[in-house]
Design brief:
Structural class: alpha+beta
Helix content: 10-25%
Largest sheet: 8 strands, mixed
Distance between the termini: 17 Å
Radius of gyration: 38 Å
Strand content: 35-45%
Number of strands: 33
């Protein structure tokens, strides 16, 4: 009997020391009702004395709306007992807010109300869901975690909005332990390809990279996309306190210099830009009056005439080579384009030629019969690379193919992503109650007899007929979902076996205890 009393005393002391610690941890959950706005639940800490930090993390799942992810707020706090003067100081940061959980809830700051230190948790929508709450803290003054609780939600009108990730530290360093600014990124090798640089990505292929090396700093747009500066139209100021701007040169000698000594130095009413030249010579002059804009060089003129559009003409204006009408349509060989681009010429061909004398590769776009083709010329022989047929079909590397196919490719295909949208049912039916899941014995028997899984084509069938990607993915997912059900069944069996083992171990321990007492 004395042994039992001693054991209970030890257990009680261990439990108390865990609850009253400098480091503490607590978990709980709370459900929010569906269809009710402005719900708030409170994490109650009691009349606590906390010197350190408290971190609150919430996560969810799916009730009336998807709320998965993780949302963490870390609060620095110094708070005394109310009987000690009630000193209270805090600040917070949000190290993580990932997934839709952050759109549904807002973790507030500490409040001290009616001798109770608490943190409000605001529900930002009226969709009912359950959250799981993890509270961790480290305090110079020990805290009894048994004082922690979470209230049922109450309705309190508020204008709270979601938290965004924030870092409270005054300076952050990446690649350095001594950051000199709010954010310092350091890497021994930085170039315009983005190695070691700050990279900002959009939703598409465009990205902006910023970096510096021993010689210069740089800003580079990647993804074959332009770099916009002041897209909204605000003023752009370069070199406010002096200095030159170079385009294509690292040593500009004027306020603006383009590689090839192209300079802009003066303007008048009739001459928009004067002294645009190479090596200082006036080789090109741009002039304008009420009827035309003229680009002139020695013995050559390009007239951009007004009227019902803009035209590029010969010297005396008798021949129009290119026309842009008032709607922005472009005509080549015609003064009345009726499409965005109209080329009026028999046997229209657009050629793209390599000027490298060592290369024989040329390309052209041509119209033949009922097809628009993109051709490639290797060693003087034109071949069809892409063939657009009038019925909407496209051939790549192939000219003649069945009209049953919208796309025919003679060769291999590589792609980052392919979307296949099936008209048939996606195999979620595997998880329905009336789905007849084959037993593992039936699966084994089918494999032994057929040499492949049920509903999966054999190697011979694939060799003869190929596979349909969408249908094959559907069948593979069906097998994966069946495999998931088998795993769940095995997991349940394992848990039952574990429970039996625990009972047997408890009985064995009791027998051993009785044997020890009888010795």
């Amino acid at each position: 009997m004395k042994k039992i009393v001693v054991l209970i005393t030890v257990l009680l002391s261990i439990s108390f020391s865990y609850a009253q610690e400098n480091y503490f941890e607590w978990t709980g959950s709370r459900s929010f009702q569906n269809g009710i706005d402005n719900q708030v639940a409170y994490l109650n800490f009691g009349d606590a004395k906390l010197w350190g930090y408290v971190e609150v993390t919430i996560t969810g799942g799916y009730g009336h709306r998807l709320t998965s992810g993780t949302y963490t707020k870390r609060i620095r706090i110094v708070k005394n007992f109310s009987s000690e003067g009630n000193y209270f100081n805090q600040s917070s940061e949000v190290p993580a807010n990932f997934g839709p959980i952050g759109d549904e809830w807002k973790i507030g700051e500490f409040e001290f109300v009616n001798n109770n230190l608490r943190i409000p948790i605001y529900h930002l929508s009226n969709k009912g869901n359950t959250i799981r709450v993890l509270v961790k803290g480290l305090s110079v003054q020990s805290y009894n975690v048994n004082n922690l609780s979470i209230t049922n939600p109450v309705v309190i009108t508020n204008n709270e909005d979601r938290d965004n990730v924030s870092i409270l530290d005054s300076k952050v360093g990446i690649g350095t332990t001594t950051p000199s600014g709010k954010l310092t990124i350091k890497h021994p090798s930085q170039d315009s390809n983005g190695i070691g640089a700050l990279k900002i990505e959009g939703s598409g292929s465009a990205s902006l990279r910023i970096g510096a090396n021993n010689d210069y700093s740089w800003i580079q747009s990647h993804g074959s996309r332009p770099l916009y500066i002041n897209e909204l139209g605000n003023n752009t100021i370069l070199n406010k306190n002096g200095g030159n701007v170079g385009i294509g040169t690292v040593m500009p000698g004027e306020k603006l210099e383009v590689k090839g000594n192209m300079k802009v130095s003066s303007s008048t009413y009739n001459t928009i830009y004067k002294n645009i030249g190479i090596n200082g010579s006036n080789h090109l002059i741009l002039q304008a009056d009420a009827s035309y804009l003229r680009l002139s060089a020695p013995n050559n003129y390009i007239n951009l005439r007004g009227g019902n559009g803009t035209r590029i003409q010969n010297t005396d204006g008798s021949i129009t080579h290119l026309m842009v009408n008032s709607s922005g349509d472009v005509g080549i060989g015609t003064t009345s384009p009726d499409e965005t681009l109209t080329v009026s010429k028999r046997g229209v061909t657009i050629g793209i030629y390599d000027t490298n004398p060592l290369s024989n590769a040329n390309n052209r776009i041509a119209r033949y019969g009922n097809s628009l083709v993109i051709q490639n010329d290797l060693n003087g022989s034109w071949s069809d690379n892409v063939n657009f047929v009038d019925n909407g079909s496209v051939g790549i590397g192939v000219k003649d193919f069945s009209s049953d196919y919208k796309l025919a490719v003679a060769g291999k295909v590589i792609s980052e992503e392919v979307t296949v949208q099936l008209q048939s049912t996606w195999p979620d039916y595997v998880f329905t109650d009336n789905y007849e899941l084959p037993t593992l014995e039936e699966v084994e028997q089918h494999i032994s007899e057929k040499g492949h899984l049920v509903n999966i084509p054999s190697a011979k069938e694939v060799e003869e007929k190929g596979i349909q990607l969408g249908e094959m993915n559907k069948k593979l997912l069906e097998k994966i979902e069946e495999l998931t059900l088998y795993i769940i069944q095995q997991e349940k069996k394992l848990k039952k076996q574990e429970e039996k083992n625990k009972k047997l171990e408890a009985r064995l321990a009791k027998i051993e205890e009785l044997l020890q007492q009888n010795r």
